[in-house]
Structure formats: C-alpha cells, structure tokens
Amino acid sequence: MTRRKIGILSTTHELTKAQRDLVLWARSSDRYTISNLIVVVAPNYSPKGLHNGSSPSGKQSTAEKSRAVVLRILTKLESRLTKRSGYPNFFDNFDPDLLKLKVTVITADTSNSQSLQVGNLEKLDEVKALELDLVIDIDSGANLGGPSQAVPWNILLLSYKDNRLNMGGPAGFWESAQGQKSTGFMLGLRQSGETEWNVLSRGNISTSFLFTINHARLCEKAQPFLYSAIDKILVGQATFLEATEAPFDSRPMSLPTVKTQARYIWSSLKRIFRNRRLYRTLRWNVAYQFTSSWQNISFWKSFTIKNPAGRYLADPFMVKENGKHYCFVEDFSVELRKGVIAVYEVSPHGYEDLGTALEEDFHLSYPFIFSHEGHLYMCPETAQIREIRLYVCKEFPTKWELSAVLMRDVDAADTSIFWHHDRWWMFSNICSADIGEHGSELHIFHSKELFSSSWTAHTNNPVVFDSRWARNAGLIFDQKKIFRVHQRQGFDAYGEAFGVSEITHLSEKKFSENNLFIVEPNFFPRSLGTHTLNYDGEVVVFDYADTVKLLSQSFANLNSKIKRLLPK
User: Fold this and answer.
1) Please, which residues have CB within 8 angstroms of residue 55's CB and are 6 or more apart in sequence?
2) In terms of Cα–Cα distance, which of 494, 508, 398 is closest to 448?
3) In a 3-state reduction of DSSP, which class is residue 498?
4) pLDDT 10s digits, 432-445
5) Sign of the alpha-carbon dihedral angle for 271, 276, 279, 285
6) Terminal-residue alpha carbon distance, the chain
7) 3-class DSSP state for residue 377?
8) Residue 108 CA, distance from chain mean position
9) Where in the chain is the domain with CATH 3.40.50.170?
10) What's phi and psi for 545, nearest 5 deg?
C-alpha cells in the first residue's frame, strides 16, 4: 500500500506539542507519512511566544513588541500552573530534526499582511514540488495562496477559534479575558483548485479562567477530531457542515494590549483568592416538589432534602414503586472524595433516608434507572474505572448487583439508556481526547440487545459538541415525547444551569432536538448552579449548588469521621 504524503505548515522551525503528536500519530499508521515541515517566514521576523500567537507580519511596532513580551512572560508564568493541571509538556517546543522531518523554508509576501501570506507562484511551486496529498495547518497564521487564489493541493486547517464568535488573537485568551462561557475550535478544508473553505466540524468546551489552561484543554480536545478528519479526507469520505450565513457582530481580535493583559491578570488573581478570602466552598443539594405538570412548576416552592453531615447530595432520579416515590441520589463524602448511591422515600409530608442503595470501591454518581421485563436496572456513572455498567435490583430499593458491563476502557460519564422504536439507545458523555472532560460531547449508541457489549456508534458522533447543552442532566418521558435535560457549563463554572430539549428525531443516521427552555439557579437564596432534573409523573426532583463556610464543612467532616470510628 502506498502511503499518502502529508506536510505540516508552520511559522517556526520548532514543532508545537499538537504538531509533534500529529507526526507520531501518522508514524503509527501504515496509510500516511509526514516527512515535510513547511515553514513560512517574513523578513526580520522570528515568531516566539504562545504557539505562533504573536503578530506574523514582520513589521512590529514598539507597542506590538511590548504586547508580545508581556504575553510571553504571562504565558511562562501561567504554564507552571498548566503543568500542575495535567498538561506537563504542553508549552514545550520540539526539534523537527529529531523526528527526521525535511524543512522547507518559504518567505512570505508581507506588503499588506496581517498574516503570513504566500501568493508568489514561484514560491508556491516549491510546495507543489513536494507532491503532498494534504497540507495541515494547525492554527499557524500562515496562508498558502491569496484570498482568491487556488492552490493545487488540499489544505486542512485546525483553527483554535470559533470563527462565528472570535477571529484572531492568541488561542484561548480572549474567551478567558472576556469571561465567555465557551471556547471553540473549527476544522476546515480548502480543496485542491478551490478558493473557499468548507467547515468539516466544530467543537466548543467550557472556558477556563486561566487562558493557558483554556488553550491546552482546547488543543487536546481538538486533536482526535483532526485525526478523524485526515482519515476521512484521504479516503474521500469528508462531509461538510451546512453553510449558514449570519452577521459577525464582534471586532476581530488581535494581540492583547498591555493594559488588557493587566486587567486579565488582576481578574484572574481576584478569582484565585476569592474563595480563600471568603472561606467558603461549593456544595450540592437536592430538592423535590409534588406536581401534575413538571413544565409549569415554581422551583422556589420545593422542599430541600437536608445534606447529611460531611456529605452532599446531587444527581437525583425518581422511581415510583407500589404507589410510593423514591429518590435515588449521589451521596458524596467530602472527606473521602467519593460518592455512593443513596435512596430517600419522599412524600408530601416529608422524606426518609433509607440508606445506601449501591456502593463500590470507586466513585458512583448519576443513578439513571429504568425498567425492563419486570426488573429495575441502574446505570450509574462509573467513569473512574472507565466502564459503563448495568446493575439489576435484587431487593428494592437497597440491594443492587452488577448485571453487565456494556462498555470497557471508555472515558464516559452520565449515561442514559432507553428503548425507542425497535432498539435500545444509549446517550453518554464521552471524552474523545481521553482527558476526563465530559461536559462538551454527547455520543449516541444503539443496540437490539440491552446486554450487548458491542453497541453501534451513531453515524454523526458526537451528535452535540458544545458545552452549553451536551452533558446529560436527566431524561423525561411525557405523553409519548422524550425530553432530554442537559447541563449548561459556564465560564469556569460546572453545572451553571440546565435546559430541556424535546428529541424530535432519533435514528441510526440522524439526531435532532428542539431546545425548549433554560432554568437558571434563581429559585433559592445564594444558589449558584443547577444541573439535574427528573420526573416520575408526580414528583419533580432537581439539584442545586450553594456555598458553605469552610470552617463549618471541616466540623462536619470531623463529626462524620468520629461517627465512622465509633462502634455501632
């Protein structure tokens, strides 16, 4: 088999981590080879800083040089935190010689450029002579061919920006500096002989308040989709998103001024020390309300189940059995940093703690429960052991046993399973990058058999790639309609709010839903978030976050520890 030839476009003689990982990925395949690095440079220009994030024009003013210097210092300082956050070598640079890449250097035309643009035919012929099947541009800031100039090869662009919201600037910076809820990337293809870009895919993750972490997370999340795009392009199976036209209402971003960077630093420092100064920490709570219409309730009228000492409750699901109502919840120990599944019986007159329903050596949450052939099954989140499990109820409501492992070695959270038409459907929040980021991707699988260990992936997975409505937060069946409850992640905020969508089409090749409404956490004093809603036909149950004093939490943890040590 002849290997397809791929080149990497860059504006530096060193590789970023994303470029290095791409080369190693291609080397592990018998279908591709990456042996060329195309470096586009401008006279008197040596790009340094945040992964080619400085101005590439080669004509930097004193102000631009000052911005770039401050950004390099800021990046270096923040990268220390980034390394401790699970990205140890993200800002390292790699020598292409060690990867045996042939470097081709081309001088750009810079007469009117805000980017490094190569339009000279003789220079483009140097690239053409490499006989590449595909050129990959990972947000380099270079452009082979003018705006209306076709080139005789395919160019795949991975842009670390959602170009519907943000154009230009260091990747991940402006979203953090402006407190935007999400940060996006785009994969686009410019085919041989064409001048227009076609969008292959987009993705949006929740924004971190430190821009280096924001940048690192975005790059890691985008990387597997880059690999998938290469596969599809080179076998002729690439499909494009439907083009939509909308006005761009933001100004194009550029290298942030020193003043802007100073404001960002001040804002970040305030955020870092705010909780320490207030001596408060976040906790989750569960509340319920009896109602005949889950869509028309007043949340503030609900009753809260009091958190046990040293623990908090979240992710509630309702089950009606023998005329009684049971609320299954994640029961999280703050001291042990581990959750079990607990159950409460609720009534119009109050609630009763019935104890632990399911406990394992690993963390459990999101106890999704459904019935099948006269049995109750629970599919709790078991992301810590990288499995999707199914438990069967042996003695309701507190005795459950493992029934099947539906998926292994998968980075998945908050899985919902249900029967629809002629098969079982599984909705799960899977992290394709395998970094434990479960808030942005919704994946669907289907199977004729519930206990199958080989579920079929939906054609369009992930069917949602947006942190504002991807993560599951419950599932409601009402009048033959299916309503998916979904979390909305905020700016550096998990579970900021939840929304409800009606599933309007679900088949092997298509998924669509209609977003109906968003519920903000305004129903109780000091509530800061809400991320689950469920209904059993008579009782609505939901969770919400507020804060508790760290000193009070410490006393509660101590009290819980003493109780565990005392003989029963």
Assistant:
1) 64, 68, 114, 254, 255
2) 508
3) strand
4) 999 999 999 999 99
5) positive
6) 70
7) strand
8) 36
9) 4-274
10) -110, 140
What pLDDT digit, counting tens, does each position of 213-243 carry? Answer: 999 999 999 999 999 999 999 999 999 988 7
How far are the Cα atoms of 202, 227, 354, 443 from residue 459, in angstroms, in the given order?
A: 16, 17, 43, 10
Q: What is the DSSP string of 249-275?
A: -SPPP-SPPHHHHHHHHHHHHHHHHHH
pTM here? 0.92
Assign domain 279-565 to its CATH architecture: 5 Propeller (2.115)
Whether residue 411 has pLDDT greater than 50: yes
Q: Which residue has the tokens 């005789």?
A: 152
d(CA 423, CA 151): 47
Q: How many CB atoms lie within 10 A of CB 242?
A: 5
Dihedral of the CA atoms 253, 181, 249, 59 (nearest 10)? 0
397: cis peptide before it, omega within 30°?
yes
Tokens representing 450 are 């519930």
Measured CA to CA, the distance from residue 203 to residue 213 in angstroms comes to 17
Pairing mode of beta strands 102-107, 32-41: parallel
User: 4-274 has which CATH code?
Assistant: 3.40.50.170
DSSP 235: T
The H-assigned helical ranges of 48-118 are: 62-84
User: What is the C-alpha to C-alpha distance for residues 135 and 157, in angstroms, rounded to an integer?
Assistant: 9
Q: What is the pLDDT of residues 331-343, one digit of tens each?
A: 999 989 999 999 9
Stretch(es) of the chain classified as CATH 2.115.10.20: 279-565
What's 318's DSSP letter?
E
